[in-house]
Each structure stands twice: as C-alpha cells, then as structure tokens.
Amino acid sequence: MDGPDRTPEIRVSDKERNDIASLLNDAVGEGRITLDEYTERVGKAYAATTRGELDSLIADLPVAHSRMGGGDPSPLPVAAPGGEVDQPEGKRKWRMAIMGGDTIKGRWRVRRRQGFFALMGGDEIDMRDAQLDAPVVELVLVSIMGGHTVVVPKGVRVEHEGGFNLMGGTDIKVDESAVHPHSPTVRIRSYSFLGGNEIKNPKEKKKKK
Questions:
Q1: Alpha helices, DSSP H only, in 34-191?
Q2: Among 4, 84, 129, 150, which is most buried by a count of CB atoms within 10 Å?
Q3: Cα-flanking dihedrals φ and ψ of residue 14, to 5°?
Q4: Could you report the per-residue pLDDT of 30-57, keeping only the tens digit for each?
Q5: Which helix (H) or strand (E) holds 26?
Q6: Cβ distance 10 to 53 under 8 Å?
Q7: Tens digit of pLDDT for each residue in 106-145?
C-alpha cells in the first residue's frame, strides 16, 4: 500500500513573484479586486515560498483559468452606474462639495480621470475598498476655502504632479517603501486657494494583545 505523497512543493523565484504582482495589478485595473485586496495579496505574493501559495492568490481571477490551460478570457468593458461604458480617454468625472462635504468610502469606482471640487467644504476620499478603471488613475483636487483628504492603502504608488497653491497646499504622508514595481498608481494634481489637501495612508490597526 502506497503511503502519502511527500513530494515537496516547488519553490518560487523572484520572477514568478513579480509575474503574480503584475497579474494582480491588471486585476485592479479591470475592477476585479479593490486596492485593499491588492495590497493584501501582493504582500503575500512577495512573501510566498511555494507555487501553491502563489496560485491561491489568483485562484478567483480569470487568469487562473488561463494558467490551467483553459484559454484567456477577454476582459469585459467597465460599465458606469447608468450602464454606459467609460472610454479610456473620456471626459473627467467631477464631484462637487459646496459649503459642505461628503465621505466617499466603501466599494466605489474611481474613474480613469476624476476630479473633486470643494468650495467652503471638502470630501474625505477613502480609496481602500475602491475599484479602479485602470492601473493608473488621475485625480484633480480643486479647493477654495476648503480641502480634501485622500486615503490610499499602503503599497499604492502616489504621484503628485503639481498644480497651483495660493495660501494653501498639499500634504503627502505615504509610505513609499511599501510600493512595488507593479503597484497601481494614483496621479494627483492639486489647485488650492485658502485651502489644502492631505494625502495619506490609513492608520495601522493596533494588534490585540
């Protein structure tokens, strides 16, 4: 009688870890996983030692079917809430906050090109559970006597591409050491007058003793 199979799992290379990170980045751009899910999975990918650990990170994605020899399903177009499909170079989508503000959080879609305008008010823009229209999205923040707070998960690349600030500014507090070569990218331009913006990582949860 044969005993249990004790064949060790094959150990993975750095290239295989990078390949999985790239596939996860594609999944973010297709709206299949959120930014928080991406950062969790990519962290596990770079910590993985066996192929089984890597395969489990993409088991619920169409690419896993392709890796098993079943072909590569074409990604579906991303539909807007009204049923329209956003074109890659479409007009920028704007959200307005006038003499007030809003908290945008939970599972929401970040358009490829999106803007936020605040007049005597502002928004808290929480991107942890957001779905992106593309691996690279562009945000424009405009604030007059107000401002915006943008929360991005660790591991997401933030690029501040300038703008204009008069008696205001943009404060960026993100952990760049957590960014990977295949990280999704949030590009931000800011325009402020008597106001400002804050871009930061979420506070780390305290571990229970």
A1: 35-47, 51-57, 62-67
A2: 150
A3: -60, -35
A4: 889 999 999 899 989 989 999 899 999 9
A5: helix 14-29
A6: no
A7: 999 999 999 998 888 888 999 999 999 889 999 999 888 8
